[in-house]
Amino acid sequence: MKSSRGRDLKKISLIGAGNIGTILAYNLSRKHLGNILMVDIIEGLAEGKCLDLAQSFPVENINTTVEGSSDISKIEGSSVVIITAGIARKPGMSRDDLIETNLSIMKNIGNAIKKYASSAFVICVTNPLDAMVWSLKQISGLKSNMITGMAGILDSARFRFFLSQKLNISVENIQTLVLGGHGDTMVPLLDYTSVSGIPIKNLIDMKKIEKKDIDQIVSRTRNGGGEIVALMKNSSAFFSPACSAIEMLESYLLDQKKILPCSACLNGEYGVKDLFVGVPVIIGKNGVEEIIELKLSSESQKQFTKSVQSVSDLVKKCKKLLV
């Protein structure tokens, strides 16, 4: 099927019809990026949400198709699969507390991808992110370049937002990267943080912001998801994760070759092997086309090593559960 803009539309499958999946389906339909399939194990949930979404299309003259199902075999023929299925955090829980329940869900999804969508580009959003995407790769047998996790884009966006509030400057002017595991050991890189090209350290010297303020923002970024969970009680973030996943999807489908911080499979880069950790990557039509190795300061390297160890500890738990 062609879109109203005359392009052949790809099939985009969303596994999980919770808040993130719902926002993904809505935004994707408005961007005309592909025909949408939403799958959820709860009978009728994806079908109902997709029927409601489809009935909004005539209002905006949208000619995309959207289908809901509880049958995961319908992901067959997908160009992209985005996984948001799994339980969300509740107040007092860390992302790591979700590991056993969400790993069992990943087993079913990974086997389905292996059987029905082995050539798809897979984006995982489910927490604990780095451990879940590692497990998915083991189960699905996907090549390293065709599976990645959404984390660093979201974490970097939070860091940019908090800095923009403190500096009273547009987020468009702030460039930064947050690497490492998607948890409270993530590493906002101050050496690679600037405002319209002005290094953040120069702004400290210029008295535009104090170091203690930056330290507080780093801490708030690391706990950004938990802050939202504590406020909403029975839900976790969904707008920002969905938008972040779409940026990755667009770079793949449209061959934009954007440099994005994502959880990627490292095989020697940064001195790490057989782990998914947040690093800058180039995403294009061939998936993760390049992993960019940055020179880190001694302090950032120390933090990154700590974060990698945290991911490794979670992966060890997954290995035991996968046996």
Structural topology:
Layout: E1 10-15, H1 19-31, E2 34-39, H2 45-54, H3 57-60, E3 66-69, E4 80-83, H4 99-116, E5 121-124, H5 129-140, E6 147-149, H6 152-167, E7 174-175, E8 178-179, E9 187-188, E10 194-195, E11 198-199, H7 200-205, H8 211-222, H9 224-232, H10 239-253, E12 258-267, E13 273-284, E14 287-291, H11 298-322
Parallel strand pairs: 1-2, 1-4, 2-3, 4-5, 5-6
Antiparallel strand pairs: 7-10, 8-9, 10-11, 12-13, 13-14
Helix pairs in contact: 1-10, 4-5, 4-11, 5-11, 6-8
* Major sheet characteristics: 6 strands, parallel
- Which structural class fits the helix and strand makeup? alpha/beta
The string of secondary-structure elements, in order, is: EHEHHEEHEHEHEEEEEHHHHEEEH
Termini Cα gap: 43 Å
Return the average pLDDT rounded to an integer. Answer: 94
Radius of gyration, in angstroms, nearest whole number: 19 Å
Query: What is the percent of helical residues?
Result: 40-55%
Strand order of the largest sheet: 3-2-1-4-5-6
Low-confidence region ranges: none
Tally the helices.
11
Number of separate strands? 14
Shape: globular
Query: DSSP strand (E) fraction?
Result: 15-25%
Give the key terms.
20% strand, 323 residues, three-stranded antiparallel beta sheet, 11 helices, alpha/beta, 14 strands, six-stranded parallel beta sheet, 43% helix, globular
